[in-house]
Amino acid sequence: MNRKTITMILAVVIIAAFFLPYFSLGGLLKMSGLDIITGGSMGAGSGGSADRFVLLLTPIAGVLLLVGALNNEKYTPSRSVLGILALVGWIYPLIRGLMEGGSGMSQIFKFMGIGFWLGLVAALAVILYNPKS
Fold this sequence. Notes:
The chain is mostly helical.
């Protein structure tokens, strides 16, 4: 497969991962990226703030990657920058929670859902997979 096809697949994975469970608390509570944005705060003290909208970088970067790949690999901004934006969108809520959550947040990786892991791997793959063709 060429770079264009790989980029289209990774862009679709990034977009789909936004709608899959980002957090999963024992099957009782599942929150996707869309739930975080529309449902309220990401942690104590962040209600009403714009922090939760940083997560919107992920699907926006995924759509721009898909459009750029379909447009003969003419990306605006560059493919690597879009991968970094998607990655920032995935890890910012995690870092923010770790900074505000204290010692209880050290167990956060147990609660990360499939959407988080798929999106993280796809964003890293967009950044790292950069063949010449």
